[in-house]
Each structure stands twice: as structure tokens, then as C-alpha cells.
Q: What sequence folds into this?
């Protein structure tokens, strides 16, 4: 009897895991697995605990909401090449991508249209320019924008009581600060020139491409707008209102002068500024800093603010509509109110649903978040989704640097930029 | 009358049979040759093929054959030609200075000196550190604001601050000097190893015969080290010509395009990413890579031939 009991117990112990595995296997057979390609820093496998918790909670809530679906994170380096390879192999169902890469893949037909999958009113909850930009390639909505940012004008209130709104006001403030305090009133990270300038070009009515995709920024009124922009920067640097070093700096490299107290106001690149300011200055000095939308050119009605960020795109899967529907459900879930609130909070990013920012004290009490949303509400602008756009900004970045460092006049620099851009256009 | 030696007939060529092949050295070389083919020859051939297509990072697998269009484009592109010019200038300046500094350090540290190993280790550190870190470190040291260590020291001495990276001409010199700081340690290690293989008797005999230090260097040390110098120069030239990380972290190729090297231009053309607004043109980037390969290959052939003739035509 004892022997029989022992044998039964032993058999039960041996068979139980097999039975459980079989049940799990049977269950997974019924489930649809969504393979979601995402960089580690935007996943539950990030090294930062707050991101692990935020992203895992979104995955868990997705599984609770849709028991028939299972989300599998495919952690990749997040580079354009690795994503291209995954798309070419048809290996993933949803991907986290930089907004700047969206147009190429959408135009190549890699993405499905989310429109029919979304619940009623879903699109209206996002900043309208996010939807407009994503539809601008071919009218289809290939994904949803998860988070965004825009350059802001950061200033030290000990020296500047009220932020300037136009470029002429900016120059006045910079001159006054320089005369009264011996400090620079403005610093531009010129290696990222186009990030805070192309929106202003749009504010002046400038267009980058015509309807046929031909670059038109060096023609007529567009050229005049560019000249006005270049003249502004040439004046600022010519008068010594900005530190010469910033002509060769990116947004990280212009920060040490802030810590050292040389520069009191600057245009920086979105949340990077806050991220670097807080740990590098004493708390009482951090408190002195505030932010405003970046000043816009005289003659423009208001600013247009370049919005960046990350998009979650739906990979087309015509052979398996059920899987495509599951991936669409994940994208809507990952960009809904709760997911945007928690994951953006963990990442320090700006949600693309204005409602999230207005409703949550975490965002509503933060001057950086509030200012960013003000700017984006007033004039959020997305760069043209055109494969030639990187060539345009590369040429303009180099041209402005040559102007402010005295290597070329505005006319020479624009002529060189025009040659470079038109050569690229003709080569394609 | 000169005695003539009878001509020795060459050994008859034996046909390679399977038995001889299996019994000979080839089977032992197959794994190494296979690895070389897989990891060297194939990528090289693939890159050559890529350079003849319009492949882009966004649409891998959808490339068209475009013949020599990419080469035609880059050789008529003022930007590429400017980068090529600066890269040559950078390579010549950096390798030349690195060799002089590295060799001088090697001579110095080859003498009996208290704490010699400490100096050697300290100098070698600059080579051990990643180029990217070296770039960021010097970016901070040469920062032009009051946060910059070097300018701060200059100001304390009453010398005006230097525009290390915002003045195009000075920026070019700055990147060369930073590379010299790094590469001279490598040359030093090479040369120090060579110096220690020179028999002391040779040098001592020359001293007894009244040879000056310069004469000993010119007629004993340099000829004995010529092979090593050739190798060191080949390696340093190739590494310097292909420089990328240092430029990324120091200047980003700026201001404007003042410090744009071919390596960085190739990366920016082929990929981009992060804050680098790259073009994502893999085909054109591959063409640039092929040009870089051919130039470094030419450097290697040149150095090898010079080294070969220096050794009197002996291999």
C-alpha cells in the first residue's frame, strides 16, 4: 500500500509539470502572439526600474484586456537598418520607430492602415498635427504617435524677467544681459540648427517641397525667408551675443557653459535640457530656470514648433488579418490615456494626447511640460515626410555653421546648400 | 676568366593529386582560409556590389543596379572632395607628428630613468582609452567657455582663450593634436619594443668609434628599426585615415564641414541616426567605403615597397 502511494505520488509529481506545460501550450495555441519590435530603452527590459514597471504594467493590462492576444517584445538596437531588416523578413507585427523614418516605410508599403481598427474618436484625442503628419504620405494612417518633444527657450529668471517672444526682442534682451551682467543672453546649439529653425521657416510661410516633391526652398519668397533666418543668426554671432563656441556645439556640448554660469538663456533641445540641468546645478539655481516657447521671426504671426518623437507603426500582414488586428489593438492600447500617462512619465517624455497632460498633476505642475504643450498647441509642426528632407537639413546645418564662423557669406552658403540639395534631388 | 656555375635545372612540377592535397598543408589551412573568406572576402565583395546599387537603409532588399552612378556622384561632389582633402591633411599631419612624438618618447623611455614603467603606463593609457571617450574628454578640456580646463589655465596666465573648435582653422589643428596625443603612445610602444632588440654592443662600439648621438640614430638605430617603422606607419596610417569616433565626439565634422573626414562622411551618408541627420544611402556610403579601401590599400603597397627596397630588395 505504502509502495503504491509512493508510486502514485511520484507519477503525479512527474506528470504535473507535463500537464501544466501542455495546458499552457494548448492555451498559447489559441492565443495570437503580437511580435513588437522595440528598443530596450522603451521596453520593460530597460535597466531603469521605473521604465520596467511602466512598460510591464501596460503589457499586463493588455493581456487582461485581450486574453486572446499575447504580446512578445522583440528587443532590437532600434536602428533604421535593424528595423529595415526585420520588416524585409516580415518578422514583426508592430514596431517602435523614430517619426523621421516613418515616411520611407509607409511609402514602401510596409505599414497597414490603422483607421478601420481604431475605436470611434480615437484620432481626435491626439495632437491633430500627429495624425495629419502620419497621413501625409499617402492618406493612410500607418501608426500612432506615442510621445513628442519640441525645443524650448530656457532662461534664467535672475537675469531675464520675461521671455522674449520675437527675434528682435531676443536680440534686445541678449544685448541688455550682456551689457548689464557681462553674460551671454542666448546660446544656440548650431549643430542642431534645423531642429529649432525649420518651424520658424514655416512660420514665415516657407515651403520645403512643392506638390511634386521638388525642393523649392531656394526660390523666391522661400529664399527670402531663409535669408532672414540666416541674417538673424549672422547678426547674433556677429555682435557676440552668443558664445562663439556654440557655433560648433550640439545640445549636450552647449550645457557646460550653463553650469559654469557663462550663459543665462538658451535655446535647447527639449527634455535633454531639464535632464542635464537638474543634476548639474544646485537646487536653488535650478529653481531660477524657466522655459518659454522659442522666439519667432519678426513678420511671422507666431511660432511654428518642430515636433519630434516616436511612433508605433502597424506592420501590414495581408496573409494573417487576425494577427494584424491583434497588433492594431496593441498599438491603440499602448497609446491610450493610461499607457501614455505612465510610460511617458517614466521616460520623461511628452505625451501626444493633450488630455493626459491636462488631467495629470505630474504634467500639469511641471513648467517644462506645460510650456511644451503650450508651444505644440499653438503651432506644432512636423518636418516634411520626404526622403529628401535629411539632405535638406544636412545642407542647411552646414551652411549656417559656415556663416556664423565666417567661412562664407549668407549668399555663398545658401548657394552651396542649394547645389547640394539639387544634386541630391537630381540623383534620386 | 670568370668561373661560371652550371645552371641548376628547376625541380620537375609534380601534379597535385587528391592524395598529395590531403597529405599537404592545404587541409590545415582550410579553416583559416574559410574564415578569411567568410569574414573578409565576402563582406568586401558584398560592399563592392552594394556600391553599384541604390540601396537605402529604409528599404533594404529593394535595391536597383545603378552601375557607377554612386562613384560619379561622389567624385563630382564638392563635399566629398573636401572631406577627402581634409582626411589626407589630417592623416599626414597626425601620422607625421605622432611618429616624431612617439619615437622621441620611446628614445627617452629606453634610457635608464627612475619610474620608467610608471611613465610608460601613463603614456600608454591614452592609447588604451576608446577614441570616443578620448574625444569627449578633450571636448571638455578644450571647451571654449570658462568651463574649459585649458582655456581656464590660459586665462590664468593672462593669455586670451583659444577658439579650439569654433574657428575652422584652429578646429582642424585641434583634432590633429588630439589624435597625436592618442596615436603617439601606440608608436612609442612599437618603437620601444624595437629599441630593446638592438644589440647594445653595436651602439657601444659606435660610441667608442666617436659616433655622435645623431649619427648613432641615423646609421644604427633607424636602419635596424626600418621594418618595424614601416609596420607601425602602415597601421597608424590606416587607423588615422579611417578615423570616425574621434570626429564624432570632438567636432561632429564642424564647424560647417571644416573637420569632416571620409570615415564620418561615409557613416553620415550610409546611416545617420541619433542627432546625426544621416542620408541613409547605403549604396553611396558603400562607394565611399570602397574609395577609402582603395586609398588605404595604396598606402599599404607604398609602405611595403619602401620597406622592401630599404631592406635591399630582400623580402
A:
Amino acid at each position: 500500500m505504502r509502495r503504491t502511494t509512493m508510486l502514485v505520488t511520484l507519477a503525479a509529481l512527474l506528470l504535473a509539470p507535463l500537464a501544466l506545460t501542455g495546458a499552457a501550450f494548448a492555451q498559447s495555441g489559441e492565443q495570437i502572439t503580437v511580435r513588437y519590435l522595440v528598443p530596450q530603452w522603451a521596453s520593460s527590459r530597460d535597466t531603469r526600474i521605473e521604465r520596467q514597471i511602466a512598460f510591464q504594467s501596460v503589457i499586463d493590462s493588455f493581456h487582461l484586456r485581450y486574453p486572446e492576444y499575447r504580446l512578445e517584445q522583440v528587443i532590437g538596437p532600434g536602428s533604421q537598418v535593424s528595423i529595415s531588416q526585420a520588416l524585409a523578413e516580415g518578422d514583426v507585427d508592430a514596431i517602435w520607430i523614430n517619426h523621421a523614418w516613418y515616411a520611407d516605410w509607409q511609402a514602401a508599403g510596409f505599414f497597414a492602415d490603422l483607421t478601420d481598427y481604431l475605436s470611434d474618436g480615437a484620432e481626435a484625442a491626439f495632437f491633430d498635427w500627429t495624425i495629419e503628419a502620419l497621413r501625409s504620405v499617402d492618406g493612410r494612417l500607418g501608426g500612432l504617435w506615442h510621445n513628442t518633444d519640441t525645443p524650448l527657450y530656457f532662461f534664467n529668471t535672475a537675469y531675464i524677467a520675461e521671455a522674449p517672444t520675437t527675434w528682435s526682442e531676443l536680440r534686445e534682451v541678449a544685448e541688455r544681459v550682456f551689457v548689464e551682467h557681462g553674460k551671454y543672453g542666448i546660446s544656440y546649439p548650431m549643430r542642431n540648427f534645423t531642429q529649432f529653425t525649420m518651424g520658424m521657416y514655416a512660420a514665415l510661410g516657407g515651403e520645403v517641397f512643392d506638390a511634386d516633391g521638388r525642393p523649392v526652398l531656394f526660390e523666391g519668397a522661400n529664399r527670402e525667408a531663409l535669408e532672414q533666418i540666416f541674417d538673424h543668426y549672422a547678426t547674433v554671432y556677429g555682435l557676440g551675443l552668443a558664445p562663439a563656441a556654440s557655433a560648433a556645439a550640439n545640445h549636450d556640448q552647449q550645457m557646460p557653459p550653463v553650469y559654469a554660469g557663462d550663459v543665462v538663456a538658451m535655446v535647447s533641445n527639449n527634455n535633454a535640457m531639464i535632464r542635464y540641468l537638474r543634476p548639474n546645478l544646485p537646487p536653488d539655481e535650478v529653481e531660477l530656470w524657466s522655459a518659454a516657447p522659442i522666439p519667432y521671426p519678426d513678420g511671422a504671426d507666431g511660432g511654428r514648433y518642430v515636433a519630434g518623437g516616436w511612433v508605433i507603426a502597424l506592420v501590414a500582414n495581408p496573409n494573417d488579418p487576425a494577427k494584424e488586428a491583434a497588433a492594431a489593438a496593441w498599438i491603440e492600447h499602448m497609446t491610450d490615456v493610461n499607457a501614455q500617462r505612465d510610460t511617458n512619465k517614466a521616460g520623461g517624455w511628452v505625451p501626444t494626447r493633450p488630455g493626459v497632460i491636462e488631467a495629470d498633476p505630474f504634467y500639469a505642475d511641471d513648467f517644462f511640460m506645460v510650456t511644451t504643450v503650450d508651444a505644440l498647441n499653438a503651432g506644432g509642426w512636423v518636418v516634411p515626410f520626404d526622403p529628401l528632407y535629411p539632405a535638406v537639413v544636412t545642407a542647411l546645418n552646414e551652411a549656417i555653421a559656415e556663416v556664423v564662423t565666417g567661412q562664407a557669406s549668407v549668399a555663398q552658403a545658401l548657394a552651396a546648400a542649394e547645389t547640394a540639395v539639387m544634386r541630391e534631388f537630381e540623383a534620386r | 676568366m670568370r668561373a661560371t656555375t652550371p645552371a641548376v635545372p628547376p625541380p620537375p612540377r609534380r601534379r597535385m593529386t587528391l592524395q598529395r592535397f590531403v597529405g599537404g598543408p592545404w587541409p590545415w589551412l582550410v579553416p583559416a582560409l574559410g574564415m578569411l573568406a567568410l569574414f573578409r572576402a565576402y563582406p568586401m565583395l558584398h560592399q563592392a556590389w552594394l556600391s553599384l546599387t541604390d540601396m537605402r537603409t529604409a528599404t533594404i532588399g529593394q535595391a536597383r543596379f545603378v552601375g557607377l552612378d554612386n562613384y560619379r556622384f561622389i567624385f563630382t561632389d564638392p563635399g566629398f572632395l573636401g572631406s577627402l582633402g581634409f582626411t589626407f591633411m589630417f592623416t599626414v599631419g597626425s601620422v607625421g607628428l605622432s611618429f616624431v612624438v612617439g619615437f622621441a618618447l620611446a628614445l627617452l623611455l629606453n634610457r635608464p630613468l627612475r619610474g620608467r614603467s610608471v611613465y610608460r603606463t601613463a603614456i600608454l593609457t591614452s592609447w588604451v582609452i576608446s577614441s570616443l571617450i578620448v574625444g569627449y574628454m578633450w571636448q571638455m578640456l578644450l571647451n571654449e567657455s570658462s568651463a574649459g580646463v585649458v582655456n581656464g589655465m590660459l586665462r590664468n596666465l593672462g593669455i586670451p582663450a583659444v577658439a579650439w573648435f569654433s574657428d575652422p582653422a584652429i578646429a582642424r589643428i585641434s583634432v590633429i593634436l588630439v589624435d597625436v596625443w592618442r596615436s603617439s603612445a601606440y608608436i612609442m610602444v612599437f618603437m620601444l619594443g624595437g629599441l630593446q632588440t638592438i644589440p647594445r654592443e653595436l651602439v657601444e662600439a659606435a660610441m667608442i668609434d666617436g659616433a655622435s648621438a645623431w649619427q648613432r640614430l641615423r646609421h644604427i638605430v633607424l636602419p635596424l628599426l626600418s621594418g618595424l617603422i614601416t609596420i607601425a606607419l602602415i597601421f597608424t596610417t590606416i587607423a588615422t585615415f579611417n578615423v570616425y569616433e574621434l570626429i564624432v565626439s570632438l567636432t561632429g565634422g564642424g564647424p560647417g564641414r571644416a573637420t569632416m573626414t571620409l570615415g564620418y562622411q561615409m557613416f553620415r551618408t550610409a546611416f545617420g541616426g541619433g542627432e546625426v541627420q544621416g542620408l541613409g544611402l547605403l549604396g553611396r556610403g558603400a562607394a565611399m567605403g570602397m574609395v577609402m579601401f582603395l586609398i588605404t590599400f595604396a598606402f599599404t603597397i607604398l609602405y611595403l615597397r619602401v620597406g622592401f627596397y630599404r631592406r635591399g630588395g630582400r623580402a
The first helix of chain A runs from residue 2 to 30. Confidence is low (pLDDT under 50) at residues 20-26 of chain A. Chain A has two domains: 29-149+307-381, 152-305+388-427.
